[in-house]
Amino acid sequence: MMESVSIGKWLTDSRRPSLNEDLNILAETSFLAKSNERQKLTLNQVYPDSELVAEMDQPTNSTHRTADPVSSEPSGMSELQLNYYSKSCPNAEEIVKQQVITLYHKHGNTAVSWIRTLFHDCMVKSCDASILLESINGIQSEKTSKKNMGMRNFKYINTIKDAVEEACPMTVSCADIVALSARDGAVMLGGPHMEMKTGRKDSKESHLAEIDALLPNHNDSMTYVLSRFQSVGIDAEGTVALLGAHSVGRVHCVNLVDRLYPDVDPTLDPDYAEYLKRRCPHPEPNPNDVEYSRTDLITPMTLDNMYYKNLINNRGLLSVDQQLLSNPITSPYVKKMAADNDYFHEQFSKALLILSENNPINEDVGEVRKDCRFVNSE
Ligand code: HEM
Hints:
There is one protein chain. The protein is mainly alpha-helical. It has 16 helices and 2 strands. The protein has helices at 7-11, 19-39, 43-46, 49-54, 92-106, 109-122, 154-167, 174-188, 208-214, 222-230, 236-243, 270-279, 306-312, 319-326, 331-339, 341-356, and strands spanning 250-252, 292-294. It has a two-stranded antiparallel sheet with strand order 1-2. Helix 5 crosses helix 8 (174-188) and helix 13 crosses helix 15. The chain binds protoporphyrin IX containing FE. The site of protoporphyrin IX containing FE (HEM) has 24 residues, from helix 6, helix 11 and strand 1. Its main location: secreted. Residues 56-75 are annotated as: Disordered. InterPro entries: Haem_peroxidase, Haem_peroxidase_sf, Peroxidase_pln, Secretory_peroxidase. Removal of H(2)O(2), oxidation of toxic reductants, biosynthesis and degradation of lignin, suberization, auxin catabolism, response to environmental stresses such as wounding, pathogen attack and oxidative stress.
């Protein structure tokens, strides 16, 4: 059966970006339409059916959390639970959800940001909203790390927090808002709905110094990436699913040019490489220029398995994305997720929930910040 890409269907979808983004994408898609016709191989042409399932390797990673040689666990760990705010702020989750929906309708890419923010918060020591702290009073903001380049929409987290504060002052943590907004953002993007535990507290410090060691880079080896995810209890299958978040959003040229200059990475589809070079014409992009490419040109605002289909057509954007297909441990999962969107959603939910529960702290070491950007004053 042919895998067909319905750009028309996407363009009539209500979950789509703003008009300006539409125009931008239309220009992008029309260029690719031609090359898609040539390049669009069916999954079955590339990988016969039997291979999709039969080739599954045993994952080498376990879902059990292992000691992380780099991060040290905070002493005051928190027990998360479903409906943690049922007595203290019964409407908390509903307020967050309504805010996420309202913001999404104004700025579609806020939903994209919430998913990335959860990853960058939780992967670095703890889901403790440390990423939201500004540089002030001896704190050096994590936002200044090169690894956090391109992160956006932080100001709208404050919008959500303000709405929650109005209903329940000093009750709902910023860390829970980061987690719940990612959950609700995923739904806005056509992703799965998840039951998520709450009860995280907010850190009183930034973990800027630890970011380089804990957050993988776009050109790290898959072996290293798998080991980083394993350290937070996520196995190879979960890692493949989580990287499916790159089915939405954008990548700035500075993170792409290594694959284009001086020579084009031979694992890149040549037509796609040509397109990317047009998007990123300078081998050394000025970091202040807003030059980027969307991660998925076909369904850019939908959290779906198009990402895996793109990988199979050698149209992964980051080196780390494309390695999912070339690595023998991860590639069977890529093929399975490319063939089955429900399976992708199932694994994505499972892994995102594990990530969202990484080392939550309690009130012995954390607090509920009044303003997500600052530690409460003593
Ligand atoms: C090995 C792991 C990962 C690496 C190296 C990585 C790297 C990157 C890079 C370089 C970008 C582009 C930033 C820019 O140029 O603006 C990006 C974007 C993004 N990443 Fe990841 N990422 C990883 C895993 C994840 C995970 C696990 C998630 C969430 C579950 C995620 C969610 C996103 C999202 C949603 C975007 C688009 C952001 C936007 O458009 O504002 N990433 N990632």
